[in-house]
Write a structure and sequence with these properties.
With 322 residues, the chain is an alpha+beta fold. Helix content is 25%, strand content 31%. The longest helix is centred in the C-terminal third of the chain and has 16 residues.
Length: 322
């Protein structure tokens, strides 16, 4: 997962904070989240920054921060040592804002169009179970869409508030999925830290004014992975199925086709597991004349790592260069 953002970075040691200098630098940063699995599909955990090599257009990058799962990020010093950090993006007290980069900001986009009418209650139950099972460090927002987007529950750590917003959703009419997805991505992009969008859909889009690949490009450049759970049968709508696969793959997410409640629950469980087993690194891009699409590669430097599979975003487009 790659995210470029401009913000004020305040680094303070959690131990011996008074003995270390505080610095503020306004920069453009790349945030990259990824998972690593072995040849049996099992997540590979416990790796350190020294185990990775991050390349951008073949240019090695120097890591600035590193985190695993929902653990707090650590600063990667030039000599490779790791130091606890606190990130302040608002100029307020650093310790009160340190949770901005801990956990994941999860945006759930729920299809409430007439395509979802029959399975509405079961879908709502599956989403509610997913919300309850999120890591306590995570925040969640619930948005719904039919012809228009509704922000049923703003981003919150209060699970009951999110579920109350979900339960207040009502079935609508036509489906403007890509309109709603674009607005959701724009909202997510304003939030610091790691974020994902999970689309729960049961049908094609018949009312959007934007093209799916245009929306995908925005998510790709913003570094926001999109996970899609479709309750529709692939054979009934192969066009949407292919679009869902393309959007999820290009943004670093995954797509699931779950035609019954049990499979929907399993899809949500798989997403939750993916989030909890990811690595997140940040870096300030090295000098690169390429103002177009920059390819990102994640390599595991150990011999065993040559057999591992890395799931990550393929790259991004810088805005106006660096």
């Amino acid at each position: 997962m790659i995210r470029r953002l401009s913000f004020i970075l305040l680094v303070v040691a959690l131990a011996a904070a008074q003995d270390r200098p505080i610095f503020r630098v306004k920069v453009d940063m790349v945030v990259l989240s990824f998972t690593i699995t072995d040849n049996k599909g099992h997540y590979v955990n416990g790796l350190k920054p020294s185990d990775f090599k991050i390349l951008e257009d073949g240019i090695p990058q120097k890591l600035s921060t590193f985190s695993e799962g929902n653990k707090p990020p650590v600063e990667v010093a030039p000599d490779g040592t790791l130091k606890p950090i606190v990130v302040d993006i608002g100029g307020t007290n650093a310790e009160t804002r340190s949770d901005a980069f801990v956990g994941t900001n999860v945006f759930v986009l729920f299809d409430t169009s007439n395509y979802m009418y029959r399975g509405f209650v079961y879908a709502s139950d599956a989403i509610a179970d997913f919300i309850r099972g999120l890591d306590r460090a995570d925040s969640v927002a619930v948005y719904t869409y039919s012809r228009n987007l509704s922000r049923a529950a703003q981003l919150t750590k209060e699970r009951n508030d999110a579920i109350a917003g979900l339960r207040g959703a009502v079935a609508g009419d036509d489906s403007a999925l890509y309109n709603g997805l674009l607005l959701t991505i724009r909202d997510a992009a304003k939030v610091p830290g790691r974020k994902v969008v999970i689309v729960f859909s049961n049908g094609p889009d018949n009312a959007s004014m934007v093209a799916p690949d245009d929306v995908r490009a925005v998510a790709e450049d913003e570094g926001i992975p999109i996970y899609v759970i479709s309750t529709n049968e692939i054979s009934k709508d192969p066009i949407s199925a292919n679009v869902f696969r393309r959007i999820s793959t290009r943004t670093g997410g995954k797509s699931y086709f779950a035609t019954n409640w049990q499979k929907q629950v399993e899809a949500f469980e798989a997403i939750r597991e993916d989030l909890g087993n990811s690595y997140t690194v940040t870096y300030y891009p090295q000098t690169n004349p390429n103002e177009g699409f920059r390819k990102i590669a994640v390599e595991v430097v150990s011999d065993a790592g040559k057999k591992y599979r890395v799931q990550a975003r393929p790259g991004y487009r810088p805005r106006g260069g660096f």
